[in-house]
């Protein structure tokens, strides 16, 4: 009897701990910011200042981390770690633009979220390749 209870407890513990230890973070989003001729604005030094804010509610925003990569793109990490839609704004010394990220829970045995779409406002010329968005700023 003791063995059966012990085996049952071990199986329950293994099942519960696997679920807790399994988390899948959303992929990063990359922005490549270029001018009308296709020149990378981070690479050529034209873009010297940028910040990205997320709308918390109608009166509050918070800054999010955007890291310049070695290949002169902006990497946004953990921006899809939620269920629903969030509004963002990128400010720079050249221009600003708004975008929305829609995310949803993943449907595997792990917990986590995936980015369903990134939608740009302000009629920006944007092309997408996977999770990289090439954005033309004038």
In words, what does this structure look like?
The chain is built from one helix and eleven strands. The chain has 138 residues and is mostly beta strands. The chain has a six-stranded mixed sheet. The longest helix is centred in the N-terminal third of the chain and has 20 residues, at 2-21.
Helix content: 10-25%
Strand content: over 45%
Order of helices and strands: HEEEEEEEEEEE
**Straight-line N-to-C gap:** 75 Å
Secondary structure tally: strands: 11
Radius of gyration: 21 Å
Count of DSSP-assigned helices: 1
What's the arrangement of strands in the largest beta sheet? 1-9-8-7-3-4
Which SSEs are present, and which pair or pack?
Layout: H1 2-21, E1 23-24, E2 29-34, E3 50-57, E4 60-64, E5 66-68, E6 74-76, E7 84-92, E8 96-105, E9 111-120, E10 126-129, E11 132-136
Parallel strand pairs: 1-9, 2-11
Antiparallel strand pairs: 2-6, 3-4, 3-7, 5-6, 7-8, 8-9, 10-11
Using brief descriptors, characterize the structure shown.
138 residues; mainly beta; 6-stranded mixed beta sheet
Summarize the entry for a quick read.
The protein is mainly beta.
């Amino acid at each position: 009897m003791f063995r059966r209870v012990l085996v049952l407890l071990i199986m329950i513990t293994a099942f519960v701990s696997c679920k807790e230890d399994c988390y899948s973070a959303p992929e990063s989003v990359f922005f490549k910011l270029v001018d009308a001729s296709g020149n990378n604005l981070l690479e050529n030094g034209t873009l010297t200042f940028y910040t990205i804010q997320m709308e918390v509610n109608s009166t509050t925003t918070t800054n999010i981390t955007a890291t310049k990569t070695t290949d002169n793109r902006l990497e946004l990490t953990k921006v899809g770690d939620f269920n629903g839609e969030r509004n963002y704004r990128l400010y720079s010394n050249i221009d600003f633009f708004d975008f929305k990220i829609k995310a949803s829970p993943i449907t595997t045995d792990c917990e986590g979220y995936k980015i369903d779409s990134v939608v740009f406002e302000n009629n920006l010329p944007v092309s997408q390749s996977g999770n990289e968005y090439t954005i033309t700023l004038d």
